[in-house]
């Protein structure tokens, strides 16, 4: 079976994990710190805070930016639920803006037209690894005093061009915080894992604090037990209770255990060395698919090739574009005109499965999920373009260890699907 996605683990990756297993550290140790430094350098970010998964990174982004009850956070409906859930975790209202079908990403024009005064952050999701028009999204959000979080979980190592320059996701000035996922189907894996990137020293320090129970052992950050207390009992803190020995730590915020292990970061460091190779192979496969599917009249290839979007002048004077070589692709999602084909999506998936080809449907518009409908009263028709995209979407296999024969098998299986209509 050729799955729609899978990890690529080399002997070097295995050796790196084994070396880590033989070291003194299993959880947070030198591999975590080294992975953070190397990852930040790779994308050109000042700070990288690695955590147990990208959902945790998105949650920390909300906490760090002070998003909470009474705030609205707008994202794309075509994403994994985690992009929106992070806002709900902190008591904010997750809301959704329709996509531009040409890009499958949040449509800046719709974002601007539907802006509500309580919106405090935008979570811009780079669907499939195709970057959002970040300069335009940042212009809109910042003109309203809102933050920009880029959920770049699909695009590790990718980038775009703007202002006549190439930028990497996580290393450009149009996101306040960027997150990546290291789940096995993503471009680089640590098993489970994620990272939060920012240029802001305070936000990075806060994310580190919140990553481990809101606890600090750094004496320069201590506020003291007695001084913290506003109650009249504070003077009951005897010298013995106030003593700060080598055991001493302070919990300054209520938080979680979002740590990642040294084992995982050893794998991450080894995978990072292979990232350019992963990205190149994914581009190669996408390019082959684009070419092979170009003449099928019931199938539309994704918007992966040369794109020049929103050439309107903005206050940042940004012209934004990307081409296939700029992209790190997680998914290859085609749009199929099932009525023209005369078959349902279930039938097509079944037909492909019988030939050993795994496919997936990504994503159900998040606001249609039962919890979202029940909690916020969202209903079908909220984002019509996202709903249309969903009804036509089918993600085909895309991962670096696919052989050329695997790729040709997928192509032949698609090409051979018989039109019944
Ligand atoms: C767009 C997007 N955001 C966030 C996440 C959450 O990542 P993780 O599984 O690492 O928590 C995912 C994972 O599928 C995702 O696809």
Descriptive key words:
single chain; 421 residues; alpha+beta; Aspartate Aminotransferase, domain 2; 7-stranded mixed β-sheet; 4-stranded antiparallel β-sheet; 14 helices; 18 strands; 16% strand; binds pyridoxal-5'-phosphate
Question: Can you walk through the features of this model?
Answer:
The chain has 421 residues and is α+β, with helices and mostly antiparallel strands. The chain has 2 domains: 11-209 and 259-415, 3-Layer(aba) Sandwich (Aspartate Aminotransferase, domain 2); 215-251, no CATH class. Helix content is 35%, strand content 16%. The chain has helices spanning 11-21, 30-43, 54-64, 82-89, 108-113, 134-143, 201-211, 225-228, 262-293, 338-341, 345-354, 370-376, 384-392, 404-415; strands at residues 47-51, 72-75, 93-96, 99-100, 105-106, 119-125, 147-151, 159-162, 165-168, 177-181, 194-198, 215-216, 250-251, 299-300, 307-309, 320-322, 332-336, 393-396. The strands form 5 sheets. It has a 7-stranded mixed β-sheet, sandwiched between helices. α6 (134-143) links the parallel β6 (119-125) and β7. α1 runs antiparallel to α9 (262-293), α2 (30-43) packs parallel to α9 and α3 (54-64) packs across α4. It is globular, with a radius of gyration of 23 Å.
What percent of residues are in strands?
A: 15-25%
Bound molecules: pyridoxal-5'-phosphate
Assigned CATH architecture of the largest domain:
3-Layer(aba) Sandwich
Number of domains: 2
In the predicted model, the low-confidence regions spanning at least 5 consecutive residues are: 309-317
Morphology: globular
Q: Which superfamily, in CATH terms, is the homologous superfamily of the largest domain?
A: Type I PLP-dependent aspartate aminotransferase-like (Major domain)
Query: Spatial order of the strands in the main sheet?
Result: 1-11-10-7-6-2-3
Tell me the major beta sheet: 7 strands, mixed
Count of alpha/pi helices: 14
Oligomeric state of this protein: single chain
Distance between the termini: 29 Å
Computed structural class? alpha+beta
State the CATH class of the largest domain.
Alpha Beta
Query: What is the overall pLDDT average?
Result: 93
- For this structure, the CATH topology of the largest domain is Aspartate Aminotransferase, domain 2
Number of strands: 18
